[in-house]
Amino acid sequence: MSEIALYGIANCDTVRKARRSLDAAGVGYRFVDFRKDGLEEDRLRHWVEAVGWETLVNRRGTTWRQLPEDQREGLDAERAIPLMLEHPALIKRPVIEHQGGVRVGWNSDTATALGAG
Question: Does 12 qualify as catalytic in the annotation?
Answer without folding.
Answer: yes
